[in-house]
Amino acid sequence: MTGSGERTTRVLILVGSDSDVPVMQEAGRVLAEFEVPYELTIASAHRSPDRADRYAAEAEGRGVQVLICAAGAAAHLAGAVAARTVLPVIGVPLAGGALGGMDALLSTVQMPGGVPVASVAIGGARNAALLAVQILGTADPELRERYRAQKARLAAQVDEKAARLGATTEAGMVPPRETR
Ligand code: RP5
């Protein structure tokens, strides 16, 4: 699956199984909103180690700048990929199975020293994509400005919600119901 048309893929999203795709499509949607060319494919560190290894090893030469790796259970994908590339790797632990994602969280976040993986929350597809945009934005001023605009939109949404909630005290606290 690709969101890049003919353009060079900048973010490569690897997922451990087709069962991970529905959650991770949100990352693709966010990257598409930011007009970042991405590619999403399946590569398992356990079931197809050669395929996962090939994607990791070839990413840099293809022009990929950030990898997002999402997997559930004993989620070694992000770590295995990080072992084979100098590109930044963002890990997304996924829920499922007996432990509800805690297994994947610990497998993703607890990387031994020397091989970092930037882990987001369990199921954090959206934040993984936003973090990828931020990383790319360090060397892409136009993308950085698009990200700045998105943060301003977030703040405006909170202002709107607060206004809808109604009056606040001087200290910024919502007054108790009986004084409203
Ligand atoms: C992991 O095992 C995958 O990333 C997936 O989250 C989990 C279960 O995979 P399936 O049995 O649904 O293929 O490798």
Secondary-structure map:
Blueprint: E1 11-15, H1 21-33, E2 38-42, H2 49-62, E3 66-72, H3 77-82, E4 89-94, H4 102-109, E5 118-119, H5 125-137, H6 141-165
Parallel strand pairs: 1-2, 1-3, 3-4, 4-5
Summarize the structure.
The protein has 180 residues and is an alpha/beta fold.
Which terms summarize this structure?
180 residues, alpha/beta, five-stranded parallel sheet, 6 helices, 44% helix, globular, binds 5-O-phosphono-beta-D-ribofuranose
The residue-averaged pLDDT reads 93
**Topology, number of strands:** 5
**Separation, N- and C-terminal Cα atoms:** 53 Å
User: How large a portion of the residues is in β-strands, by DSSP E?
Assistant: 5-15%
Describe the structure.
The protein is α/β, with parallel strands linked by helices and about 180 residues long. About 45% of the residues lie in helices and about 15% in strands. It has six helices and five strands; from the N terminus they run βαβαβαβαβαα. It has a five-stranded parallel β-sheet with strand order 2-1-3-4-5, sandwiched between helices. α1 (about 20-35) runs parallel beside α5. The structure holds 5-O-phosphono-beta-D-ribofuranose. 5-O-phosphono-beta-D-ribofuranose binds near residues 16, 17, 71 and 73. 5-O-phosphono-beta-D-ribofuranose binds near residues 17 and 96.
